Amino acid sequence: MINNQLENHWENVHSKKKENEVSWFQIYPKISLEIVNSLNLNNSAKIIDVGGGESRFVDNLLEMGFYNIDVLDISKSAIDKAKKRLGDKSSTINWIISDINDFKPEKKYDLWHDRAAFHFLRNQIEINNYVDLAADSISRNGKIIIGTFSSNGPEKCSGLEVSRYNLKSIKKEFKKHFTLNSHLISNHSTPFNTFQEFLFTCFNKK
Ligand SMILES: C[S@@+](CC[C@H](N)C(=O)[O-])C[C@H]1O[C@@H](n2cnc3c(N)ncnc32)[C@H](O)[C@@H]1O
Known about the structure:
Oligomer: single chain
Distance between the termini: 32 Å
Radius of gyration: 16 Å
Structural class: alpha/beta
Strand content: 25-35%
Bound molecules: S-adenosylmethionine
Shape: globular
Helix content: 25-40%
Number of strands: 9
């Protein structure tokens, strides 16, 4: 999909659907937050949620005391909705409207989080570019958390084909710059009473 089509697709989704009318909705992003907790980061850690959309991950990071948070998404509507939900607290977040493929980070992050955005990359060049970009943008001793559909997960998300991963295949994509810290499989219960199997991995930058 070329950039404009991709942007239109996601604008359409976020402007037409309510937060809880999409399969990936979570009232509380438990797995991501448990992994964050396990990392014992300082509250000053620079964190980015890539493809954060309308996720409540950012709300919870603020609750936990983090204050250097960026949220990136291709969709302006998604960012606007997240800002509205957060009200006054939204001014403390650095909101970035960008396609991840075009993102030029201005800082080094201690934690890069991506739940269900990386898996939309299906072309090996884009996947390699993403991993290189993450490596360039993450500080020494920094971490990356990636949540994708597992090899038992759905073949599509939001009507778009995704890349599904098992531990071996995700390690292969990240091994140039990262070593595995932890992983787990989780079954996400969608608002439509179906289940989607996710693989969460956390890597350390080499
Ligand atoms: C399946 S949703 C997941 C949203 C959020 N991470 C969560 O867990 O609720 C995918 C998100 O990634 C965003 N997205 C998709 N492709 C993107 C890209 N190339 N660059 C930036 N954001 C993208 C979409 O707008 C959407 O908000």
